[in-house]
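== Protein entry: sequence and backbone fold ==
=== Local backbone shapes as whole numbers ===
==== Amino acids and backbone structure tokens ====
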Amino acid sequence: MRRFLINVVVILLAQQFSAAAAFMDETCELNREMEQQCRSYTYSVVKPMLDYLHQVSEELQESKSKDEIIKDLREKLAQQEINEALINEMRSQIDFQKRIDSLTKSNKKCKAELASKSAELDRLNVEMKKLSSSLLDKDKEIVKINISNSGVTIRADL
């Protein structure tokens, strides 16, 4: 009896499995048809979204490219501003050096003039001393002449 029950249960289970398999075949066939219908519908719905995503992706890539170009241009501009500042500083230094050179040249010219004037002054001092000495000698002569003339005049008066 037990064996009979087990056989019945096994037979019932086998029928269930075969019915389920048949249902699965029908379901798979229905699924394939549904899938075909869904594909065309899904494609028509998803295609614009995919196109939009592709467009956004391209715009994003283009934006990144432009951002990179802008970054490079800003770096070049900053470097150019630094270079211009350095050029202006160098021009200032060159102008300052020219002023120093001009003042140095003027200073040398003044020193040369001063040396010339100093030599002229020394020469004039020597000449003045000679003239002063000569004048003193003349004064002494005049005094001697005056004394001699005064002595002559005194004798003549006598």
